[in-house]
Specification:
heterodimer; A: 107 residues; mainly beta; seven-stranded mixed beta sheet; four-stranded antiparallel beta sheet; 11 strands; 0% helix; globular; B: 118 residues; 48% strand
Chain lengths: 107, 118
């Protein structure tokens, strides 16, 4: 099983600031990496697939990068509505696995 | 517009069984990949199963944690997916989501809460 490790567990960022979230896979997964956003009390929604392709309707201030085993989600110009837990997930091998999540707080 | 809605959750005693339902609109469950994902209260996400569309075999593959206890079926006439859960234990307490996609989950339902407790 591929283990996905996210850091930090919690990130506190001021409005208008930048949030940088990391995700590491226990082995190379190519670009088979998806990021999801889960706002409080809601189901997850897709943000980015293929490590760097924004889903339909996702703002350009969300960007993803990386390949192999190291990935990054960057949120520029952070807004209050970005308060959420962000999960990465690999789809290279079964079972598909998620990271434990990074909680983004607004300072 | 794609929409998914789960139902059937509730309080169940350890060792019991429960069947969850996921009704889809905006697409046909038999022509797409459908998944179940769960989330224990306050914790992270765990993928449970994927069911291939009928044109790709229609088979279901399960995570080891639920293999042999959980089973997915479909009601094509009502565009619905079911998750039959047997031999439930406290570790199965979670919000259960259905989600569409082959490894990339582009649509999710709102989830249904299953609580296993005596």
């Amino acid at each position: 099983e591929i283990v996905m490790t996210q850091s930090p567990a919690t990130l506190s960022v001021s409005p208008g600031g930048r949030a940088t979230l990391s995700c590491r896979a226990s082995q190379s997964i190519g670009s088979n990496l998806t990021w999801y956003q889960q706002k409080p009390g809601q189901a997850p929604t897709i943000l980015i697939s293929g490590a760097s392709t924004r889903a339909t309707g996702i703002a350009a201030r969300f960007s993803g990068s990386g390949s192999g085993a190291e990935f990054t989600l960057t949120i520029n110009s952070l807004q209050s509505e970005d308060l959420a837990v962000y999960y990465c997930q690999q789809s290279t091998n079964w079972p598909w696995t998620f990271g434990q999540g990074t909680k983004v707080e607004i300072k | 517009e794609v929409h998914l809605a789960e139902s059937g959750g509730g309080l169940i005693q350890p060792g019991g069984s429960l069947r969850l339902s996921c009704v889809a609109s905006g697409f046909t469950v038999t022509s797409d990949y459908m998944n179940w994902v769960r989330q224990p209260p306050g914790k992270g996400l765990e993928w449970l199963s994927v069911t291939y569309g009928a044109i790709w075999s229609g088979r279901t593959y399960y995570a080891d944690s639920v293999k042999g206890r959980f089973a997915v079926t479909r009601d094509t006439s009502k565009n619905r997916l079911f998750l039959q859960m047997n031999s439930l234990g406290a570790e199965d307490t979670a919000i259960y989501y259905c989600a569409r996609g082959m490894g990339v989950f582009d649509s999710w339902g709102q989830g249904t809460l299953v609580t296993v407790s005596s």
